[in-house]
């Protein structure tokens, strides 16, 4: 074997490490349990509407469930958006570095050898994967149970236009990608917090409090000048993807805000982690 052949391909090596990290994230029992809770919400919504009908007082999408089962997916996403999905992302991201340090495996990982920058990149990529996977899971379960209980058909958009089944699936996929981008930005915050401590519970709680804090600040009218800079301010803009034509103004601002948060907090995590004294 030549010297060139002996050098591992960095891209293949990164992908192998990324695949291993994603399998680890998905296969842990506590994470499976968390995903199970996320998947249970759309089922509960669909069964409740099927048994007791539409009673009002919930997300606007609930009223349309009986006409098209795919609205269960949108209703479930709206219900889980303030707490359940951010909590799941906060738990995984808070555990990313702090969990390894708490178990004593972080030092071992860095001596494999895996460079700190590559490890942090892989960790964040797996968090993006989880953010998308969790969002798609909620939507997919909601779409399936809704289709079974209520059937499918043309969807009436928020703008009053009607689209077919295929176009509806495309819109639902766009909603999942948009929300996953916001959750990925929250994961960057959690990753940064995770580099500050060796206690994953502490990192998770801190990330959840940051998320809740942004929601609270967004309700204070005296701070309306601050609202556009809050990550959570743009999450409910996913409804603009359900108009014809799609209103891209708030969607674009939401994506740019998420990108800014992701870059800033990933760089902060890198600056902290690259100079951190790893003793465990």
- Whole-number mean pLDDT: 89
The N- and C-terminal alpha carbons lie at a distance of 36 Å
Element-level helix/strand string: HHHHHHHEEHHH
Low-confidence stretches: 1-5
Number of domains: 1
Largest sheet at a glance? 2 strands, antiparallel
Characterize the structure shown:
The chain has 280 residues and is mostly helical. The chain has one domain. The protein has 10 helices and 2 strands, in the order H-H-H-H-H-H-H-E-E-H-H-H. It has helices at 3-6, 10-27, 29-52, 71-80, 84-103, 106-110, 116-150, 165-194, 200-217, 248-274; strands at 155-156, 162-163. Strands 1-2 form a two-stranded antiparallel sheet. A hairpin with a 5-residue loop joins strand 1 (155-156) and strand 2. Helix 7 (116-150) runs antiparallel to helix 10. The longest helix is centred in the middle third of the chain and has 35 residues, at 116-150. Residues 1-5 have low confidence and may be disordered.
Summarize the entry for a quick read:
The chain contains ten helices and two strands; from the N terminus they run αααααααββααα. It is an all-alpha fold.
